[in-house]
Amino acid sequence: MQDIYPSDPRPGNGYSMTLTLTTLPNIPLIHPGDSIAEIILNSLQEAKILVEDGDVIVLAQKIVSKAEGRLENLTQVAPGERAKQIAEEIDKDPRLVELILRESREVLRTRPGTIVVEHRNGFVCANAGIDHSNVHGDWGKDEDWVLLLPEDPDASARKIRDELEVQTGKKLAVLIIDSHGRAWRLGTVGTVIGLAGIPGVVDQRGWADLFGFKLRITQVAAADELAAAASLLMGQANEGTPVVHVRGFPYPLRESSMAEILRPKELDMFR
Length: 271
Hints:
- The N and C termini lie far apart (54 Å).
- It contains six helices and twelve strands.
- Helix content is 24%, strand content 21%.
- By secondary structure, it is α+β, with helices and mostly antiparallel strands.
């Protein structure tokens, strides 16, 4: 009789597999200087989750940015001439446009209300990821406060991962995710902007398919797939559950960075 359990336990090769995602409870409002790792550890304890080797912690970008003090008040921003020109063309606050330009390498597209840029961290996104929602400062009007992405999301992920590993003694991974649009489809989806200890892309070229043919092209955006799953639980509005614990990620953990996910400009057909 043919063995129904193949020797290769990778996803899709016949084994029953389980991926469990659990939102962590009672994450407090984050303020500049807060320790994200400490907050995660407290919440894991409250949820009675004992971490294991291979677990992944997925974080909404916003709490990382807040902890790192990436808040800006628009009343303190002086827009330059280019920002004023673009703002007039697309009917957008020139002070916000100025911040978008500062956070970007290149403006790729504009339309009323939106600027698509190559962020200075390399990925393409709308408005350089700068956000008004669920943001407030210690003074002034709430509508004047905006939040920038972490200055170096990979470094932020590594720092949090390292602190968690020291405290738990386990081999872990961390993803920092944000909501991005896609070139071919409507709607936003959870997308990785920083990672530590988890493969961004799993190269399946050379793997055999069901009929034994060798794959030639397939590279799986494994970290983005997990980011999208976690984003379903986090939500996109009240953001009351910005941390997700993951068990059962189906690929071995390893070091990586955003560099392996980003498509080179010369291969980007939308540039």
